[in-house]
Amino acid sequence: MNRKILIVVIVVVVVSIAGTIVLNTLLATDNMPQSTGTLVFQSDETDVNISIFGPEETIRAGTTGNNRQLTLTNLPAGDYRGIATKEGYSPSEIMGTSVVSGKSSTIMVSVGLIQPVEPVFVSTNPNALTIKQGNSGIIAVTVTSLNDYAGQVSLNCYDLPSGVVASFDPAAVTISAGGKGWLTLTLTVSSTAEKGLYSVSWGVVSGDHEAAGLGFLLQVS
Fold this sequence. Notes:
The structure is a single chain. The chain has one helix and 18 strands. It has one helix at 3-31, and strands at 36-43, 49-53, 59-63, 69-76, 78-85, 89-90, 92-99, 104-109, 112-113, 120-125, 128-131, 136-145, 151-158, 164-169, 172-175, 180-189, 196-206, 209-220. The chain has a five-stranded mixed β-sheet with strand order 11-18-17-13-15, with no helix packed on it. The protein has a four-stranded antiparallel β-sheet with strand order 3-2-5-7, with no helix packed on it. The longest helix has 29 residues, at 3-31.
């Protein structure tokens, strides 16, 4: 066999073997089990909407069923933080929660009844969102009349990080007794806003009554 042809054949065989080894290594890496665990949220109510943020910086969400539980599986190991909301109840923040690889943990979640003196109830869809720097996001806000309140309602956002601007459309809404009103909240995040997870509170003005409380979670990424 010609020496040049022999050298070419040897090189092709070596490259082929090397490529096979690299491919097998990549496939093996993809098939390696990740460090994941499970969180079981136990509530005292059904239809509680739960959203959590973790190491993967994406939202995992769900609703408690008839057994008042929500199970989230294949969660990367690490620390988690979230929010629990339900129509007609005060939201609660979920903190100090961790996922341990290969383990399942049960987290008790409680949402409180709205105080009987409150004239309105404010809810959001979604109750948590992620917005990248230089982008904006939208939350649908519903205001529900309580105790036959009728009149104008306006909202403000508190505890927003620097570089995030909130605007409501319309700026205020007028509701009838037992009725509802709707607003759109736009959150604009500057390119210099600090990344992180923030709990944002409402300031709610309805007539002569003013109230404040947890509104939603915002992650700037």
